Predict the structure.
Amino acid sequence: MRATLALAAAYLVGAVPVGYLVARAFGVSDIRRHGSGNIGATNLLRTLGRLPAVLTLLGDVLKGFAAVSLATVLGGGVAIVTAAGALVAVVGNCWSLFLGFRGGKGVATGLGAFLNLVPLATLPAGLVWLAVTATFRFVSLASITAALCVPVGALLLGYPPVFALSALAVGALVILRHRDNIARLVSGTERRLGKRVAG
């Protein structure tokens, strides 16, 4: 019962559609009808500018961190519940109850979740994200690469295997949510960071 409550709470926190709410606060009624149609920080950057994007990024990171904390407390500190809480929070972000089970791509929420769960493995992955973004200016490529670094780092740094397994599952989910981006990367049509879009 405690585990069910913990995971339900983690999902609901992860499902809070931060980007959608930020966009509404900045006068856009539904960010899903603009730019790429995504509710994440990258689309807000391209459609509304830096401040909404930063607010969305911070909000998504914080909710991921908070979801894991909540799962840990409500789950009594059981490792498998905490690990599952991280995964469920990202699922909530990707398939939000509040948006008809649509949502973002899970990257920032996953960052927050794993900053809580496996912080020492997440920090190098963040550096990888920065390096790939600075070099190629493809946020999607950077996000996929960084997401795959987290489970490897978790294993190498000696975190519980169940934590690494959670990170691996989130990495697979991030790849799944970026399948359209991957197709555009292959075809050479993916937009680079900094390129604004209309409408």
Observations:
- The chain has a mean pLDDT of 96.
- The chain has one domain: 2-187.
